[in-house]
Protein 1
Amino acid sequence: MIVKHKKGTTLLILITALLVSFLLSVRHGAVDIPVKEIINIFLYGEASTNSSILIDIRLPRVILAGLIGAGLAAVGAVMQGIFKNPLVDSYTLGMSSGAALGAVISIITGISAGIFGLATTGVFAFIGSICTLFFVYSLAYNKKRMSTNTLLLAGVAVSYFLASVISFLMMLNHGKIQHIVFWTMGSIATASWSKVLAAAIAIMPGLIILMFFARELNMMAMGEEAAQYLGVRTALIKTILLLVGSIIVGGVVSTGGTIGFVGLIAPHMIRFLTGSDNRSVIPFSALLGAILVILSDTIGRTIIQPAEIPVGIMTSIMGGPFFIYLLRKQKLNKI
Amino acid sequence: MDCQIQIDNLGFNYGTRMVLEDICFSVEKGSFVSVIGPNGSGKSTLLKLITAVLKPKRGSILLQGEDIRFMNRKEIAARVAVVPQNTSIEFDFKVMDVVMMGRYPFISKLKGEAKEDVEAAVSSMRYTNTLHLADRSFMELSGGERQRVILAQALTQSPQILILDEPVSHLDLQYQVEILNLIRKMCLDNKLTVIAVLHDLNMASTYSDSVLMLKDGKIRYSGTPLEAFTKSSIKDIFNTDVYISVGEIGNKPYIYTLTKPHIESRNKSVHVICGGGSGSDIIKELYFDGYDISSGVITIGDQDWKTSKDYEAEVAEEIPFTGISDKAYLLNKKLMLKADYIVLADVYFGRANIRNLDILLEEEVKDKMIYIISDGTFKERDYSEGSALELYKKIKANSKVRLISKKELLEELVRQDLNYDS
């Protein structure tokens, strides 16, 4: 009845691309590790300098990149669905900046110094993310009407404000500048297995929950009232999705800083390919997001060796023009 | 009677602004109820309360005997489906997916879609003639197609109650009729209960079993279209003068808005002697120009009689085939004396109505301005073997009598009015 092959093909391409980009990313870097050696290390546990680079540095970095990309893209897809605006994502809504501020506060106050450091940072990032989200939301929600433009403007304005608060905190805390810059630029250069674990705990269950509500999100695209008529408890589902989205963003930002535009680009490309059905848009966007961040990071750390471009800068360089293209495009309403 | 919706003493307000007050009504299974009222009268709020999108501040709503407050969204959606005003949001979904959304109240999250869900979708698409669109993108559809798909979605909910919020106001005429015909058919065939907000009074009149007329949050009038739609109720609700004609389509009232500039009364009255349709044009034209009309003697059921009634003329009437009784004769005379002008239409004369000529020769009537619509065919219209013609000649001899054509009549009357006034 429904032509599904388009979705099948897309899924196949995405999985292939993810495997290819994974391999590319594992192979290239400050030290190139030939594919043959990678296979040997994986299959036969061959111990060498390269094997510790691969297992302890590169592998966690690539996996973290994938998790972050998947989380950001899925959250972007869901936010666009909820707010019926193709230009929102965790970045433009200010959630990422809020999470970054939360993380920075946890660092400069020293709360994150203990054993549960990463978890504490994550919780602070989550709180920052959700507070910002509701603040931006309440700014845009005026007299029972929600203006999509206001939402975007409020998001950007609040982002700027939070960024300057972070800069101010940097000024006051010279000693920790290096540490803080990481949040503002978005970098996964310090990836480790513990970070991968933290990110996975925050992101993976969230992804599953987001996908679980894809059908409801589809129905809400017809308008919240229309969805209610069909039996959807919209207020409850919106709350769940926003909460889960904030948890994911908290997990992303506490492990990788603010990484922009992935949440914007990936869902948009997927919708272009397969239509608006969130049952495929959310998982496909997650896959594409993972691919984009893995590739951006690979390019960032190989293009001007021995220096590294933080992944957040890479995604912004690619995403900025894309955002402008979206703005200029006529069919902005298509979600 | 099988009561689908019972609303008691329902009230709603936004802050201090009263939106609905003392709403009481019930809807029987299989009936089509229209809600009519100007913008801001509370129609949409009423629909939102019935669908539990809003919670009532006062009163209660029973859905098939169950209090809506104790039902969850899915339970309500399994009984009540809504076709909203228009679905303007652009989203790139397959038509089939959009229709399948209607099964949401029935699909378990874990099991997914069952065969019967797909069957329900297919059959409602067949019903609304949208099956061929199943694989198209909803975004590419025309307004009429979209609305039919949304209707298919609502039907896929297999509702017992269908709620329509101005379902057709944005559609081309063809689709308006198509969709309302479909819904009406389901009322009759499947005992579907329909509550519709309709903008077009004539659509409401044509399709509804009963209407509720709202103003300022209260039900002002209700009943069958014939009972509820009157000149005065519509004037009250919409502050608009209308003319209502009954019987042109079934036994439903048909409402014409009066757009003529001076429907204001001229405070001049005209009595028309007519019958057999000879006076209808004259009555209508004079009415729309602000004259008060009376007519007689006409037999009940005659076309001129009907026109007179429609245009609020006072009529001296008589039972068919009996000739003019003294009672009718005297009433006719009374009306003539009250009138400023008398018009004799080009009516056929026979034994039954010849007294309508006699009357024009009465002493008291002679002072009146009498206009005879004349096209020189009186002879042919005389079926009284000459006696009518004789009377006619006598009448013509009166100095206050003028022969005139139908076309010139109105002009002449207006000229007379001006003389009168100055």
Note: The longest strand of chain B covers residues 3-14.
Protein 2
Amino acid sequence: MNDDPAALLPELLLLAGAVAGLLTGMFVPRGRQRAVAWICAAALAAALAVTVTATGGAAFGSYAPDALTQAARAVVAGGTLLVIALVAAEARGHRREAEAYVLVMLAALGSVLLAGAGDLLVLVPAYLLASIPAYALAGFGKDAPGTEAALKYYLMGAFLGVLMLAGVTLLYGLAGATGYRAAGAALALAPGAAAACAVVLLLAGLLFKAGGVPAHFWVPDVAEGAPVAVAAFVTTVPKIGALAALLRVADELGPGGWDVIVAIVAAATMTLGNLAAFHQDDVRRLLAYSTISQAGYVLVPVAVAQHTALARPAVLFYLAAYAVTNVGAFAVVAATGRGTLDGYRGLGRAAPGLGLALVVCLLGFAGIPPAAVFVAKVLVFAAAWDGGYAWLAVLVLVNTVASLYYYLRWVAVVFRGDPPAAPPPGLARAVACVAAVASLALGVGGGVLLGRAA
Amino acid sequence: MTVLTVVIFLPLAAALGLLAVPRVRGRAATWVWIAVSAADLALVAVMWAGYRGGIGYETRLRWIPTLDAGYHVGVDGLSLPLIALTALLFLVCGVHSLGERRRERAHAALFLFLQSVSLGLFAALDLLLFFVFFDLSIVGMYFVIAGWGHGDRARSALTFFLYTFLGSLALLLGFVGLFLGGGTFDLVELARNPPYAASPGVASLVLLAVGVGLAVKTPVFPVHTWLPPAHTDAPAAGSAILAGILLKMGTYGLARVAMPALPDAWRAHAWLIMAIGLVSVLYGALVALAQPNLKRLVAYTSVNHMGYAVLALGAAGLAPGGGRAGELAVSGAVTQMVSHGLITGALFLLTGVLWDRAGTYDMDRFGGVAGRAPVFAALLAAAAFASLGLPGFSGFIAEFQIFVGVIGAGAVVLGAAAVLGILITAALFLRALQRVLLGGPGELTGRVTDLRPAETAAVAPLLALSVLIGVAPRWLLDVIEPAAAALSSLAGR
């Protein structure tokens, strides 16, 4: 074991960015708080650069800076960078502008730690770090919908967090160790029912962060009630951490019965998410349910992670693809400021770039090539089939077709009707376009990245 | 990088250019489309002249190493005729669209995008690449129908998208199955070492998935129900491309993917495939016979004509060890794809004239059009005769080869029953010609003016080429036959 702190440089950069941002925010007048955004963005860009150029770090006992963590770091840093721009567009001149950036940075740090945790006792604080700033962000607007969203989010998170803690306790009691690998080895000898119980409890917290059924109820409320930039953040970044963490638990803790439990959760998540999205006229709720179904698709390779080598690239690539697509879609909502499907009538003619970005993101969600999610979905199909869960692949297929219906409802509106007044160009529009281009670039050139991450 | 890559992506580059330069608008955008398509066609002609057998103009680049998928393109005797057909049909659709008055810039960009997609599909030698273009063709056509169609276009476009997208995902599932069996998405390698040689059960399932995906696109009975509404509500140029190019992707996929990669399963189910083909032939013809709507009639004859191609490809699996009959059948199927593209493209562009002038396709409201619009009448009659397989047109060359191949492969009864399809087609086209062109003037006949120069210039080359193939087919068959022989021996091994 080689405890080299330099291996944690990306995490340290995120932390330093948050602290420096907080301090700067305290001493800078309200009109110049934009500086904090630049500090946070610089920290994120540095973390991204360090991650991309790193050559794999040494393993710590309870924290593993391996390929999985590297991928999570890169995706979280990249996604958060886009979100910071969205926050900057939305919170400009707000009384607590600096705090928004800092909270985003801290929750992003928590998400990275979730992915890298190799020990249950690191997982729990990472969960709290990823959650608590997000609660505060959800209520950032201090208005009625925001408060409701924050309260729901918090109550659900606290409840499921306690369940997770109980699961951790139970696991420790059964296995006598908290490190994933050590606990996994000991768990094989423990009574099956108790072990299964502990795994389910552990899943509760992670599914909450991932927005999976049955811990998904907060997603639509937060997406609708919180500011758009915050909605983009909480439906993207913490999910990345949680799903990466689930993959690591599957790999290293390797509890028995994992594939069946997660397969059922995945099936329920994608199906319920899609069914609920069908007749949504509120675009934020529609996107929220779509993020739930997307989480379901990512859970498919997580379920079969113990049976096929394709699962890991499938999860990692899906997370990257999902992050850019989801942030892009929310960025369009932020740029137009319109909450209902009808508000998008004629957008394709009023603002062709923005309309095109929306179409790329929505069709990308449905897995139309060459958007990034397409490659991810092919990997998911292959992993599910190879892992002995061909029925799950068929279910993904059926759900994908069903999801196309509500994505197309939105797409069709964009190109119909008279153009309304064009939304003013701004940072959010730039983010939407960057995300759409990134989605296409990732789809066309992502194979190379995939080779590295796997 | 070869000239093939330029051919594929030139229209796409032009489309992006059109979108990026808002100043090119109105008819100028359509002229850009025509110029680019003409340049593309010229490049294809150069490729045709320089083609020397085997896989020509091959390029292979890595794309997703984890899945062993790559940008692998090339042409052979199966794909080169279809690539040439694509380039020609998009050019004439451009000429025809000089009459388009709605959002010309987006219209031209969308069609150029579709042209790239179609060319890419026919050139693809990698399953994932094939699938990318396959899916994008659906997206492009969705926007064509939803944006420039008429009638209940939003609903038709949605039905089209959902239906064919479901098919495409079944196809993807089949492709993933091929990948898991063969360890690669590369078609050439899959054809060299067909996966699942030892497990016929899995091979049959994979063939089922691939077959369903391609059958929806072709379309064959009973998964053809998306086709009539899509055609009825699509604009004329959109219909011509949908029937002339996009439907070919289904049968081309059967010949390019299913037969070489799953030869054992193909042989085992040859009778089933032929039966589906035969039912499509007869069902398509009978339903077309009952149509009062001229465009729906033409749409259903597509089901009939593509049925012949499926029947022939199935027969190639029946012929022992390939053999002459299998070769003839495959060669007939490819000729049929080219011929159907030319003739149906012309037919749809011509029926579009009726909508343009009178706003309906209802045959009973016309009559005696021949007197008012002689050029229109002459071309429609020529196209109809070509479509029913009259000797002297390309359809005859194709269908004759198919019948000889099918009967030679041992399916005498099926072959004889398929000939019945020709009879019904002849009846329905003659009836249609009678109702629209001859007799006393109908309610809307007064509105039908003769073809504009652009419309004539779009339709005439298609029919001229059909006659050329019908009279002197050697130049085409010389390219197709070696590939057909190779394919039928692959499927018969």
Note: The first helix of chain A runs from residue 9 to 27.
